[in-house]
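Reading a protein record of the kind used here takes only a little practice. An example makes this concrete, so a full record is given next.
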Amino acid sequence: MRSGGFDVGRGVLTAPARTGSEPGCLRPTAPPVLAPRPCPAYVPLAPAQERMWHAARLGRSADWNVARAMRLRGASVDVAALRAALELLVARHVPLRTRYPATEFGPAQRVADPDNVVLDVAECGITEAELAPAVAALARQPFDLTRDLPVRARLFVLGPDDVVLALVVHHISVDGRSMSPLIRDLVTAYLACRAGTAPQWPPLPISYIDYTLWKHEQLGEFTDEWSRATHQLRYWANALAGRPALLDLPAREQPATPIDPVAGALLPISFDAATHAGLLRVAQDGRASLFMVLQAAFALTVGAFARSSDVTVATAVSGRDHRLLDDLVGNFSDDVLMRVRLDRAGDVDELIDQVRRLALAAYAHPDTPNPRLKRCLLQDAALPLFQATLILQRARAPRTTAEPPPAQGFSITEVPTGVVRAKHDLEFGLTDHFDPLGAPAGIDGSFIYPIARFDEATAQHFVARFRAVVGLLAEGYRGPLAALLATTGRGRSLSTARRATRVLV
């Protein structure tokens, strides 16, 4: 007799015992093929979309807006061609013309026919002083995902040869890697429309709907105890069982006037080429990646900040694990968690090895939606799954198609949107750089924090501590974690560890 399910008393998911007679137990089925396929009447959300959809239902839609603003200057800026290019862009990429209603089967993707799309594009004259507030206001405007298309644009005309195109897309329809093909295709369409021709795009091999159906075919149903979806859910429920539900982070005194809980501020951070090279040596010695070493330093810093030896940190995975997804616009990325037990690592090498194993396991279980996982954990559903995240990206060489050559008679530059949204308490976004010969050239990025939670001095202290820990690892410190975790004396323990480093190296 088989048994299995969610053990409420232990807070874990248990797997039923295999008997060898289950379907697929003796004869594994062939993996589904990613290819165009008929579109059924009901198309569910992709796993990466579920978190955004539920946040929008709770009134936090604007927190997930992705905004870009581009300034076009030159004698030949053509506003009508810009508008036409936007319409062609939305027709090409299915997620830009998809609505997300609730249905009797659950939240769904409903794609509008290109001929029936009415794009939210407005043109208005504006002054330089009015530009920044206007772009910020557009970026903060929420979408109603059940009835609005998830994209809107404004053409802010500062003069006959000076136009700012502000584009806002909801995260449910794009991810970070979508912005490159999106902007590239927009520029291609604009150049074609200005010349009175059709854009010469290569055809997209599949659509986002094809991807969604393929992904669900891979995962199976949560009602199937042997499905990949259930296996991943069981892994996460077991890995996170018994962890602290909320880290005890220092908080600022709350002002009399409430502050938007996701209004954020940004602090820059950078590491030079020597530090970058040192981190790569550490990674090589530990059979790890640069990201794993940085995530170990991040977990140490979070643990010291929260005075906890059990910390959950997160990162984003791209989800584009098939070559046919490279040029698609859509949301493929999702968060994966790593529960780091600092008390189970005797020294730095053991910590990096633990983080390496946790990261590899997380990469192997990337498709469990956060709302579903929350229902399997013995914690208040209002609490976040994680409060700290670090994302590392590789810098890419600029693509010539994204910037028209000087002969075209105009230039395109990016304009800051003026909006910083801090959806997590502690968030690093880092980029590593390499020179043309492949040598490490440094790491830079930013730390984003909610101003309702931390004042600037506290945020700067956290960044300084992270920078110090990273520096110690790059210099060769491999000793006990206690010196890096101690928080008394404002840096005294880090100075002790630095002296130990000089002895070690």
Observations:
- The chain has a mean pLDDT of 88.
- The chain has 13 helices and 17 strands.
- Residues 301 and 466 are 6 Å apart (CA to CA).
